[in-house]
Amino acid sequence: MDHFQYKNGILHAENVSLERIAAEVATPVYCYSTATLERHFKVFSGAFDYADTLICFAVKANSNLAVLKTLGRAGAGADVVSEGELRRALAADIPPERIVFSGVGKTAAEMDFAMEAGIHQFNVESETELRTLNGVAGSKAVKAPVSLRINPDIDAKTHEKISTGKAENKFGIPWSRAMEAYRLAASLPHIDVVGVDVHIGSQLTELAPFRSAFERVVELVKSLRAAGHSIQRIDLGGGLGIPYTEGGEVPPLPAAYGAMIVEVVGNLGCQLILEPGRLIAGNAGILLTRILYIKEGENRRFAILDAAMNDLMRPAVYDAYHGILPVAEPKPDSPREEYDFVGPVCETADLFAKSRPAPPLQEGDLIAIKSAGAYGAVMSSTYNTRLLVPETLVKGDQYSVIRPRQNYDILLGLDKIPSWLE
Ligand code: LLP
Fold first, then answer.
1. Contact, 59 vs 68, CB < 8 A?
2. Residue 195 in contact with residue 270, Cβ under 8 Å?
3. Which atom of ligand 1 is nearest to the CA of 313?
4. H or E, element range at 109
5. Rounded Cα distance, 318 and 53, in Å
6. Which terminus in the chain has less CB density within 10 A, N or C?
7. Which strand ranges, in their side-by-side order, compose the sheet holding 4-7?
8. Do 268 and 287 sit in the same domain of this protein?
9. 400: closest CA among 13, 41, 5, 4?
C-alpha cells in the first residue's frame, strides 16, 4: 500500500496536493512519501520472526540523504556499493555497524575508507579482491570482517539485465570454487571470515528461485562448518519484486518471503542480513511531470512530457512498465484514449509508455509516473544538457525540497576550457 491517493479530485502524496508541489517547485520533480517509506520498512522487517535480523537498505535504489535518514531512524542499516554510497549512509547517521559493503569492484582506497569507518562487513566477490582487502587491512594491522558472495547459478527468472545469480553473470564466486575460496580466506592473516552472502537478482516475482538459492547457502554453511570455518552471518541480498502493473505481476508478499527464509535458514543460528531496495522505495515515489504538447502522429497520439529518459531511465533501459496517473482525477465515466507518453530527448527510446489508455488529456495537465522511488533519481543524468531533476519528500501535510533543481551555472561550470582554447 502507498500513500498516493486522490483527495477531492486531486492526486495527493499523503496530505500534500501534487498540484501544490508542481506550482511551487515546478516540474519535472520526484516526490517521495515518508509514510510509505516507513510502512514498507515496517512491513518488511516485520516479516522476519527471527531475533537477530539486520535490514540493510540497498542505497543504490534511492540515495537521497533525507530518504536514508528517514529509513535509518526507522531502524534500517545500509547496503552500499561505493565509497560515495558509504559516505551518504554515514552522513545520514546510519551507524557503521549496520553497514555492509557489496560490489564486484571495490578499490583499495574504498576498502581503506570503509575499514576506517568500521563497517559491519565486506561482501567480497573474488579471490583477488580478498587478497587486496587482506593487504589493506594488514597495513592498518586489523582484520576485515568478510562474507564471501557466492554465485549459486540459479535463474532468478527476472529481466536479464537485473539477473545476477547465474554462472554467466559477473557476480560472486563460482559455486564450484566456494570451499576453496573460504580456505584461502581463512589462510589470510587480516581476513576474518564471518559469513556467506548471496544476491541472485532484482524484481523477482516468484519465491522458488530465492528458495533454491537459499537452500544452496544452507548446504554451503554446513560444509563450511564441517571444515572448521566459523560462520555466524548469512546475507541473503535483496531482490523481492513489487507490483508495477495494475492487475499485472503479483510478487510474493514480504510475509511469505520472510516466512520462507526463516523456514529455510532459521536453525543455522546465524545473524540474518537482508538488502531490500526496490521493495522499500519503489512505490514510495512518483515522478511528477507536465504535458508540454499533445501531438497527433500519423496513426497515434503523443503526450510530450517535460520529463524524459534522462530523469527516469527504467523504461528505456529495461522496457519497464510504470503506471501513469493524471493528477486531476478522471471522471469514472470519461472515455479512454491511447497515448504514447514520451519525453523531449532526441531518442526514440525516450518513451515512458506506448499505446497507454488514459482519459482525454490536454496540454498543461499534470501526470504522475508511478513506482519511481527506486532506481529513478539515482539513475538520472544530464543527457541533452537537461538539469538534474529535483526531489521532494512529503511528511503528513508538509513537504520539503530534499534536492533542489540544478541550475545552468552549476551544470556548465562543471566543464573546463583547456588553456589552448582560451
Ligand atoms: N543487494 C545487491 C548486492 C544488489 O546488487 C542489489 C541490486 C540489491 C541488494 C537490491 O535489490 P532490490 O531489492 O532493489 O531488487 N536499476 C535496476 C535494478 C538494479 C538492481 C541492482 N542490484 C532497475 O531499475 O530495475
1. yes
2. yes
3. 24
4. helix 108-117
5. 32
6. C
7. 4-7, 10-13, 16-17
8. no
9. 13
CA angle (258 as vertex; 257, 261 as ends), nearest 5: 90
Q: How far is the CA of 162 from the centre of ligand 1 (A)?
A: 7
Residue of the nearest CA to atom 23 in ligand 1? 375
Q: What is the radius of gyration, based on Cα positions, of the chain?
A: 23
Decide: helix, strand or coil at residue 271.
strand
Please give the span between the terminal C-alpha atoms of the chain, in angstroms, as a whole number. 57
Same domain, 263 and 286: no
Instruction: Give the domain-ending residue among 274, 294, 319.
Output: 274
DSSP 160: G
Answer whether 345's CB lies under 8 Å from 383's CB.
Answer: yes
Among 174, 284, 183, 172, residue whose Cα is nearest residue 236? 172
Question: Taking phi first (over 0 means left), then psi (-120 to 50 degrees means alpha), and beta for anything else, what does residue 247 get?
Answer: left
**Residue 172, Cβ neighbours under 10 Å: how many?**
27
- Domain end residue (candidates: 274, 290, 320): 274
Domains of the chain: total: 2
How does pLDDT run across 16-52, given as a tens digit for each residue?
999 999 999 999 999 999 999 999 999 999 999 999 9
Pocket of ligand 1, candidates 40, 54, 149, 202: which has the most ligand atoms within 8 Å of its Cβ, to mutate? 202
| pLDDT tens digits, 196-254 | 999 999 999 999 999 999 999 999 999 999 999 999 999 999 999 999 998 888 999 99
Whether residues 293 and 214 fall in one domain: no
C-alpha 365 – ligand 1 centre gap (Å): 33
CA distance 160 to 216: 22
Task: Please indicate whether residue 346 is annotated as part of the active site.
Answer: yes
Residue to probe by mutation, ligand 1, list 54, 55, 60, most atoms within 8 Å of CB: 60
**Statement to judge: residues 135 and 207 lie in one domain:** yes
Cβ–ligand 1 distance for 102 under 6 Å, the answer yes
Range of the domain at 304: 4-31+282-413
Atom of ligand 1 nearest to the CA of 379: 16
Considering the candidates 31, 56, 270, 346, report the single residue annotated as catalytic.
346
Q: Tell which atom from ligand 1 comes closest to the C-alpha of 81.
A: 3
Which helix (H) or strand (E) element contains residue 99?
Answer: strand 99-101
**Once rounded to an integer, what is the mean pLDDT over residues 278-303?**
97
Q: Are residues 213 and 259 both part of a single domain?
A: yes
276 in ligand 1 pocket by Cβ < 6 Å?
A: yes
